Amino acid sequence: MEKIYSLLILMLFFSAYGQTTDPRYQPKPYVEITHPEWTKNATIYEVNIRQYTPEGTFKAFEKHLPRLKKMGVDIIWLMPIHPIGEVHRKGKLGSYYSVKDFRGINPDFGSLADFKSLVSKIHGMGMHVIIDWVGNHSAWDNPLTRQHPDWYTKTREGKFQPTPWYDWDDVIDFDYSHPDFRKYMTDALRYWVSETDIDGYRCDVAGFIPVDFWENARAELDLVKPVFMLAEWESRDLYRKSFDMTYSWTLWDKLKQATIEKKGAPALFEYMAHDVNSFPFDSYRMTFTDNHDKNSWEGNQFSNFGDGLEAAMVFCSTVNGMPLVYSGQEAGLNRSLAFFEKDLIEWKDHKFSGIYEKLFRLKHENQALWNGKWGGEMERVTNDNMNKVLSFYREKNGDAVLTVINFSDQETEVILDSKAVKSSYTEVFSGKPVIISNDKTRLKLRAWDYRVLVKNK
Predict the structure, then answer these.
(1) With contact defined as beta carbons under 8 Å apart, do 403 and 452 qualify?
(2) Residue 297 φ then ψ, to 5°
């Protein structure tokens, strides 16, 4: 009896303190797809072909590629390149997102040969290209409305309808309950990858389309070549088997609170906590101060963040995620571009281009700022002025970056908690040395000022 009792005690001990091998309790990575290796330290740039040049063509845009390469752009995202519907068209030129032919090229932009030439030139410069994919709806005069009217959702009266609850009157809503339609759309996605050698897609309103469709589409596309997929959505479920990256709408909203609404650094704390704790470690989040939605509907980038715009740009380029630049942003675009008419971007030298060039060079060279599992986790660095100043530290394989930003319209001095960040640094923009040695090290920051400190090796 004594031996049995002793055995029971040992079993209880190992049950409580031993290491279980039960597979039910083993941690598993949530992200099951493999990100293309070339995305590990990539940046992304959104191209509005219509407004980019007076010609508004692929050929004319090619001239800007050397400039974008110099700025540090890695992924060129082209807004929809397909023919635009004419029935119920908005404005004179219509919306890119009213697609008349999913396998066609908008003749205003050029020919299929022109598009292939552009893709080839982008690849030749060491960059990659994705195109916008509008899978949720089509133009009213898309041939599918005649060939397969059952592939669309209907009103109670059995008529075509725009996506319910939206004012997208120039498009009508697809019904993904039909297997043949799913195959049609997947085949069309494969077509552009296999025939034109693009590297993936930015998928419009991706969350309106069933996740299982995307998971299968990603698997089929990866059989052609490893692709990069960006979802216009912000949801954890899309990371598992379908998308490399989603939008970070939440960050944009929080940045507006921190700047325009004058709520300061605390407006961003919740975002930082959720990014570290609720999003999969190997997920990518697209960070931005502007894109075609915000530019068109919310006003221009300057009104979005006011005097805090540069601070927001630096923040988006050093937090976890892949920074986005929208067409003209680097030239100081100070107005919203028309969405349904011709509205040429005014190209001029602007300090924003230089800011991005320095930040993107740092992202390429410093592993702390790389994407997903390749980069360093954001660690909170407390300071004595948390209502105004946000400070955080990222480190990976010996590389480290310390970002300090004054999210206020007042000059301030700040003392960092130096326990974790005590070291010698070089500030990216000034090139000046900064030594953080103890709790008496003060940083003086002007209104909306910032420091990006690279740890010396």
Answers:
(1) yes
(2) -110, -25
Q: How far is 184 from 122, CA to CA, in rounded Å?
A: 28
Which of these, 231, 233, 240, 226, lies nearest to 283 by C-alpha position?
A: 240
The tens place of each residue's pLDDT in the chain, 457 residues long, gives 454 555 555 455 555 556 889 999 999 999 999 999 999 999 999 999 999 999 999 999 999 999 999 999 999 999 999 999 999 999 999 999 999 999 999 999 999 999 999 999 999 999 999 999 999 999 999 999 999 999 999 999 999 999 998 889 999 999 999 999 999 999 999 999 999 999 999 999 999 999 999 999 999 999 999 999 999 999 999 999 999 999 999 999 999 999 999 999 999 999 999 999 999 989 999 999 988 887 654 555 556 788 999 999 999 999 999 999 999 999 999 888 999 999 999 999 999 999 999 999 999 999 999 999 999 999 999 999 999 999 999 999 999 999 999 999 999 999 998 787 999 999 999 999 999 987 777 899 999 999 999 999 9
Is 287 in contact with 250 (CB distance < 8 Å)? no
Q: What's the predicted TM-score (pTM) here?
A: 0.94
